[in-house]
Design brief:
The protein is α/β, with parallel strands linked by helices. It has 2 domains: 179 residues, 3-Layer(aba) Sandwich (Rossmann fold), CATH 3.40.50.2000; 151 residues, Rossmann fold (3-Layer(aba) Sandwich), CATH 3.40.50. It contains 13 helices and 13 strands. The strands form 2 sheets. A 7-stranded parallel sheet has the order 3-2-1-4-5-6-7, sandwiched between helices. The chain has a 6-stranded parallel sheet with strand order 10-9-8-11-12-13, with helices on both faces. β5, α5 and β6 form a beta-alpha-beta unit.
């Protein structure tokens, strides 16, 4: 059996890795190891779903709170890989903690398989991290043929590039989305009335403008009448500044229609997307998952600039008036979208490749 060590840093990648991990665990040809920080939002779920065996399935590393923990992630993952000696290290995305873990794999002579490489997000230093992970990797699982072509240009190794789609879409084919009645106790908004999903993450190439950007965003949310469920940002530089600005705005009486939440699991999140009026912000889920639910999206600013955009997405700048104008436009959206990021069967494709390597 081939031993596969899957790295997950937190909520930002776990929802996308969930079904991949599940399929590896069930494979008769693969042995699963999970590397995760102690403060992973779903660490208890990992232990529950993947119980310890003689070789512990879940390998804990120290807490990860921000980019200052890069060196700690590298050291801890190096120790884990030296201990378990997997055949493949598997990671998804472009975050700094994955880069640290992948560097540990590279220097430990552990072959790296990377999911969601070849993409472009011009507003963030994710591009530099993602491309660096691509160059360290031997196996590439990409969400679209254009991204595969980019990796081919970078690596000149066609045989190792596999077009599998986005594994985040697997929830839509492998799990039943919650009904409104089932969602009722999970959120603090009235699901029988129109509501908007909102999320604004730091644009890491524009950190000096973060307070202005989130201020304009919050003013736009305050100017509308619909309910807003606002998901707080990922663990990125300046996320504290965004959270502080959110808190300051929410104390105003005219923001009573805006409810902020720290964390929502992936199935709940997708279920909320199913019934939402629209999505607004700069989350990658607005580009990738929303199309499968025909959900209109207002994508703000440069964080997702460069990605392949489905027809349900309208792009706008950071100014409050631009955001409000784009929100008015998408209210009338009623089209059917073909999602360019796959059909919800990525986990099977990824595991089949891993089994046959």
């Amino acid at each position: 059996m081939k031993h596969i060590a899957v790295f997950t840093g937190g909520r930002s990648d776990y929802g996308h890795l969930y079904w991949v991990i599940n399929k590896i665990h069930k494979s008769k040809k693969l042995e699963l190891y999970i590397i995760a920080p102690r403060n992973h939002e779903y660490i208890h779920e990992l232990y529950e779903k993947y119980p310890w065996r003689e070789a512990h399935t879940v390998q804990e590393i120290n807490d990860v709170f921000g980019i200052k923990d890069y060196a700690g992630v590298f050291t801890d993952v190096t120790d884990v890989l030296t201990d378990i000696q997997p055949d493949i290290f598997l990671g998804l995305g472009d975050r700094f903690e994955l880069h640290a873990a992948a560097t540990a794999a590279l220097l430990s002579n552990t072959p790296i398989a990377h999911i969601h490489g070849g993409e472009t997000t011009e507003g963030c230093f994710d591009d530099e991290l993602r491309n660096s992970i691509t160059m360290m990797s031997q196996i590439h699982f990409v969400s679209h043929i254009e991204y595969g072509e980019k990796i081919l240009q970078m690596t000149n190794k066609l045989d190792n590039i596999h077009i599998v789609g986005s594994p985040g879409l697997d929830w839509l084919t492998k799990a039943k989305l919650y009904t409104k009645a089932e969602l009722k106790d999970k959120v603090s908004i009235n699901l029988e009335e129109p509501y908007i999903l909102a999320c604004f993450n730091p644009v890491t190439h524009e950190l000096s403008n973060t307070e202005i950007q989130i201020g304009n965003f919050m003013y736009a949310l305050g100017a509308i009448n619909e309910q807003v469920l606002l998901i707080r940002p990922n663990m990125d530089p300046k996320n504290e500044a965004i959270n502080d600005m959110i808190n300051k705005h929410l104390v105003f009486s005219n923001y009573s229609h805006v409810k902020a939440v720290d964390n929502i699991n992936h199935l709940t999140y997708l279920s909320l997307m199913k019934y939402a009026l629209m999505m607004v912000g700069n989350s990658s889920s607005g580009v990738i998952e929303a199309a499968s639910l025909n959900l209109p999206v207002v994508d703000i600013g440069n964080r997702q600039k460069g990605r392949i955009m489905p027809d349900n997405v309208i792009h706008c700048g950071y100014e409050t008036d631009e955001i409000l104008l784009a929100m008015d436009k998408v209210k009338n959206y009623s089209g059917k979208v073909v999602n360019p990021y796959g059909e919800g069967n990525s986990a099977e494709k990824i595991v089949k490749v891993l089994e046959e390597l």
